[in-house]
């Protein structure tokens, strides 16, 4: 308990792998349940090695994560930024896309690929920090 509040830890891959798809759906996983179950089973049985990601560079680690069913660029970047300390990872979701469009590309529509390339060159090796500030700005600014 922390400050008299009880918190649950995130379940291990082994525990998730032992669940059924129906049980995961009951946890409000919805359409993500089959992908989560498949990924957990690959991790639990050793077919996918999360520790191996630490030895890879950002691009290789991102590509490796995206081999998992249901893991796209945004999720891979979130895992690398928040879980593995890849400060250059720049997750692009709807809020980040809106922020970059409004602040840096107000007159033309930019693709996600262009936005990611812009973030890498404009914000550099710590683009992940900029992403957090942009996200916070978009979520808290007055309309």
What's this, in brief?
With 143 residues, this protein is mainly α.
CATH architecture annotation name of the domain at 94-140: Orthogonal Bundle
Q: How is the biggest beta sheet arranged?
A: none
* Helical fraction: 55-70%
> What's the helix count?
8
Distance between the termini: 38 Å
CATH class of the domain at 94-140: Mainly Alpha
Radius of gyration based on Cα positions: 18 Å
The overall strand count is 0
Helix and strand element order: HHHHHHHH
| Poorly predicted tracts of residues | none
CATH topology of the domain at 94-140: Endonuclease Iii, domain 2
Q: For the residues shown, what is the average pLDDT?
A: 94
Beta fraction: under 5%
For this entry, give a set of tags.
mainly alpha, Endonuclease Iii, domain 2, 143 residues, globular
Provide a descriptive summary of the structure in words.
The protein is mostly helical and 143 residues long. Among the domains are: 10-48, no CATH class; 94-140, Endonuclease Iii, domain 2 (Orthogonal Bundle), CATH 1.10.1670. The protein contains eight helices and no strands. It has helices at residues 13-17, 21-26, 33-44, 58-65, 73-84, 94-104, 112-123, 127-140. Helix 4 crosses helix 5 (73-84) and helix 6 (94-104) crosses helix 8 (127-140). The longest helix is centred in the C-terminal third of the chain and has 14 residues, at 127-140. The protein is globular. The termini are far apart. The mean pLDDT is 94.
Which helices and strands appear, and what pairs or packs with what?
Layout: H1 13-17, H2 21-26, H3 33-44, H4 58-65, H5 73-84, H6 94-104, H7 112-123, H8 127-140
Helix pairs in contact: 4-5, 6-8
